[in-house]
Amino acid sequence: MTVFAQEDFADHEQVVFVSDAAAGLKALIAIHDTTLGPALGGCRMYPYADEAAALRDVLRLSRGMTWKAAASGLDLGGGKAVIIGDPRSQKTPALLQAMGRAVERLAGRYITAEDVGTTVADFAEVRKATRHVVGLPVELGGTGDPSPTTALGVFHGLAAAARHRWGAASLAGSHVAVQGLGNVGWHLCQLLHEAGAALTVSDVDASRAAKAVASFAARVVSPDAIYAAEAEIFAPCAMGAVLNDETVAQLRCAIVGGAANNQLAREEHGEQLRTRGILYAPDFVINAGGMIRVASERDGFDEGVVDRGVAGIGDTLLAIFQGAEADGVPTETAALHLAQARLSQARAVQAALAA
Ligand code: NAI
Fold first, then answer.
1. 225 in ligand 1 pocket by Cβ < 6 Å?
2. Is 147-288 in the same CATH topology as 14-140?
3. CATH code for the domain defined by 14-140
4. Cys-Cys with 208: which of 26, 151, 181, 329 at CB 3.0–4.6 Å?
């Protein structure tokens, strides 16, 4: 297994391989870029097939966090951690505390939070060993589960996309296909239903889909059928790489925007969406609501400030859509330009100060 030569190794500042045999911990922490501030990103626990898969995941995810923070105007860098193991059978207080010790050794260069396979409650354990944690339970001074705020950001983002695409004043009367009814997808359905949108949903867990029928009068389709659903908007809220060689051709929608990270399997799928006339809201911009919320714990949480930041996701996307059209590039490219411009500016200021 190579590290520096990996396709996803994109000038990462630091990659830490963590081992604590007594606690049964094997983990990786990747710090991609700290130009704008300490690297913040969730800690995922997953039974990766092998170490190479875990490394690839942590490198991709940490780089995405750099773009997410930069595009959202946060003074934070990008980082991520992955614990190799099955969260259902291998997650113990000792393992979580060992992870906390590993985070503490980085002395604040990396700030951790919940992610797939970890919960807000798990971070009460991690917190015993490090101060560098956000997304803590409310009783420990945190802001609790960030998922409803992520969903609100996606909702604002979809409204902005509808305004850009159709000049629509709201999402009332629109039809949205939501893939994945977990923490974010469920809250998103709630917001869309209240706003007067019709819903088509899918989840591999049939009981969640059935609940959506009862709660939102949603139509249910099988997981494979969601791509070709007859809806104007497709909102991926389950896994990454769902916009790929097989699915892009099936889409009948005019807008794609949802919470899942790394939705484009490869860069070229962004161009394919553009060619098909489908407006894509780049994932790292539209799903930044949760990050905006947990980041606020560092400066003293203020609901009003968070709400304004999350509503700003819509404005950022409008600027990206307009920029992409003006330059004739995919929206993902325009969003990357925005994030990279902010990083370049910060680097120039830092270089001038150091001179
Ligand atoms: P979750 O684990 O609570 O929900 C995921 C849902 O997707 C589950 O109900 C699962 O059964 C379903 N699912 C899995 N595979 C599926 C498939 N092939 N078709 C249909 N449904 C499927 O996760 P959560 O927290 O709702 O996050 C959703 C996505 O958004 C993840 O990719 C996550 O990384 C991303 N995200 C979440 C944030 C948050 O605040 N929770 C913040 C930013 C990104």
1. no
2. yes
3. 3.40.50.10860
4. 181
**pLDDT tens across 22-75, in order?**
999 999 999 999 999 999 999 999 999 999 999 999 999 999 999 999 999 999
For residue 38, give the amino acid letter: P
Q: What is the pLDDT of residues 227-250, one digit of tens each?
A: 999 999 999 999 999 999 999 999
The Cα–Cα gap between 227 and 232 comes to 11
- In CATH terms, the fold of domain 147-288 is Rossmann fold (3.40.50)
Of the candidates 68, 80, 91, 128, the residue annotated as catalytic is 80
Backbone angles phi, psi at 18, to 5 degrees: -105, 135
Helix and strand totals (H; E) in the chain: 11, 11
Does ligand 1 have an atom closer than 6 angstroms to the CB of 100? no
Mutate to test the pocket of ligand 1, among 43, 237, 243 (most ligand atoms within 8 A of CB): 237
Domain residue spans of the chain: 14-140, 147-288
Active site residue 68: no
Q: Residue 226: which residues within 8 A CB-CB, separation 6 or more?
A: 177, 179, 200, 201, 202, 234
